[in-house]
Amino acid sequence: MNILIVEDERNLADAICKILKDEGFRADVTYDGTTGLSLGKTGMYDAIVLDVMLPGMDGLEVVRELRRNGVSTPVLMLTARTSTTDKVNGLDAGADDYMTKPFETVELLARLRALTRRTGDVVIEEASFGDLHLDLTTHDLSCADRSVHLSGKEFEIMKMLMSSNARVVSKQDLLTRVWGAAEANENSVEAYISFLRKKISHIHSKVQITTLRMLGYRLEVIN
Amino acid sequence: MLKSLRRKFVAIIMALVGIVLVSVVGGSYLSSRQTQRELVNEALERNLVGSVYDFPRIGGPFMDDREDQPDHGRANVLILAIDLDSSGMVLATNNAPVIIDSTALSNLLASILQSDANSMWDESSHIAWMREQRTSGSWRVVIADTSAVDVSLHSLMVKDIAIIAAAMGVLLVIALFLSTWVLKPVEAAWEQQRQFIADASHELKTPLAVIIANTQILQADKAIPTESMRWVQSTADESAHMKSLVEELLELARTDETTAGAKDVMRSEAVDFSTMVENAALEFDAIAFERGSLIEQSVDEGVCVQGDPEWLGRLCKILIDNACKYSSPGSPVRVELHRENKRCTLSVNNQGNVIDPADLPHVFDRFYRTDKARSRDAHTGGFGLGLAIAKGICTSHGGNISVQSNETEGTTFVVTLPTQS
């Protein structure tokens, strides 16, 4: 995987480059827009990380010029500006994604992976059961047009229930997989199951979590 | 903020000049009233003594027949003088050329003799009178017509009021004009400060991104000994704190911009506020649970608000997060949304950690922390900007926010926002 980094802040460019290399990407760095554009035009990159504010030629122009030359390499824009109009300008110019500084490297890597996925690659980004959909990257649980964000543990529990696909998941399994053996407490499991039930009914789903005494929990679609 | 400053400025000018104007014009009215009445009273008193009655002249200065000298301090006034015996029978008059109905005159004389006072100015019937009892028991009564004085005083008052009203109107225009002129530098300084905060935050973002990226590289570096890793970790923690601080500062600058009247900063669309509040409350279930409390919600369905969904969501989260942070373990956090006429009320209540009454007016101030000793500790986190942002969001949505805190009911933050029908 070959990534081009166009960023005039040398320290930041070098740090991103190092992180990408540590993660097994190959990465090239350039510090100005004009060079960035000519390197981008070669088409030898799988993705471009592009700063908006650049000396010579700004990031928006670089993207526009690339797209005009038929280069469809995915572009991830980096900017210090946060307002929605800036975001829209970037996406309108032809960028594929947009991140504001300062950012978490984990998020940068996740977004780059998402951008560089080839069409046809089998990617599981979503789990579903009945009318429920669970987005595995954003942790949003949705049903039709209503959605709700799940906290870390709620998400783990929901994912386990969904992947077991209507089979029973025991309380013990949930405890060891979600909490780890150290802080095991059955009351916590019950509390989190009740939070999930509230959220499922909030988004008007027909799915419900059924308790099976002494056995555990499973998902069911009710009519 | 500037709008209220301008309003105060105009109000102060109007009040100050208004007080001066009313006292000057009112004082001049009262003094002219006193002068005019004194002229009539002086003529009445003159006729109360002796046996000589004056008849007023027409034109020229007043001539006192007894002194045979012109007197510029007195006025020619027609006086009807009547002598009566103790039973009220008319003994003599000065035959002043006046027209008065005989019954009206006898009623008047009767009421004068029954009166407790020795003189009276009756504006309603335009009559002033004085009386004096002689040693023989007989009465001298003198009566003057006061319509000229009363009418001129009345018309003076009407004119004075009209002058005050016109002057205040002109003054309002001048004060409004002056206020824009005077507040221009204040507005510029305010805008400069806001711009500075926004620019400084933007400038801090890139170096911060480098620090965060570098610490992440170091954290993944196996060659760093464990004891040194502690310092890398604390750098990572502090830069994460700084990241949220910079983001909050920017948010605050944006709400200030909207409050100052900028239009393009905030989106304005119909927002299903009920669902938004429920969503926010549901998101905090797990967080509250880990801190040993539960969230109870009571939300009216279908409350719709005009505004920016991102900001309104942020408002709900700031308030619920704050309540979770300060709630005492085992007590519930109550989130309620109720519709009231054309407004809705969102209240978030938690028990424990009562805010000192002295601190209450300051909780929405930037960086204000009620518990100074515990500022920025690991458990409560935050930098004291959350509530300032919440207030900014409320103001820019045409609503307001208030707080109550006491031992029995705990701490409640109440937001009122205009709703959409």
Account of the 3D structure:
The complex is a heterodimer of chains A (223) and B (421). With 223 residues, chain A is an alpha/beta fold. Chain A has 2 domains: 2-116, Rossmann fold (3-Layer(aba) Sandwich); 126-221, Winged helix-like DNA-binding domain superfamily/Winged helix DNA-binding domain (Arc Repressor Mutant, subunit A). Chain A has 8 helices and 11 strands. Chain A has helices at residues 10-22, 33-41, 59-68, 84-93, 105-116, 152-163, 171-179, 186-202; strands at 2-6, 26-30, 47-51, 75-79, 97-100, 126-129, 132-135, 140-143, 146-149, 207-212, 216-221. In chain A, the strands form 3 sheets. Chain A has a 5-stranded parallel β-sheet with strand order 2-1-3-4-5, with helices on both faces. In chain A, α2 packs parallel to α3, α6 (152-163) crosses α7 (171-179) and α6 (152-163) packs across α8. Chain A is elongated and about 70 Å long. Chain A starts with a strand and ends with a strand. The longest helix of chain B is centred in the middle third of the chain and has 74 residues, at 147-220. In chain B, α7 (309-326) runs antiparallel to α8 (386-396). Chain B has helices spanning 2-48, 102-114, 147-220, 226-259, 273-283, 285-290, 309-326, 386-396, and strands spanning 62-64, 69-71, 79-84, 90-93, 119-122, 127-133, 139-145, 269-272, 295-299, 304-307, 333-340, 343-350, 400-406, 410-420. In chain B, a hairpin with a 5-residue loop joins β6 (127-133) and β7. Chain B folds into 2 domains: 2-152; 266-420, Heat Shock Protein 90 (2-Layer Sandwich). In chain B, the strands form 3 sheets. In chain B, strands 8, 9, 10, 11, 12, 13 and 14 form a 7-stranded mixed β-sheet that branches. Helices cover 51% and strands 19% of the residues of chain B. The model of chain B is unreliable at 373-382 (pLDDT under 50). Chain B is elongated. Chain B is an alpha+beta fold. The A-B interface holds A 9, 11-12, 15-16, 18-19, 22, 80-85, 100-105, 146, 148-149, 151-154, 188, 191-192, 195, 198-199, 202 and B 202, 205-206, 208-214, 216-217, 220, 239, 243, 246-247, 250, 254, 264-265, 267, 275, 278-279, 282-283, 285-287, 289, 310.
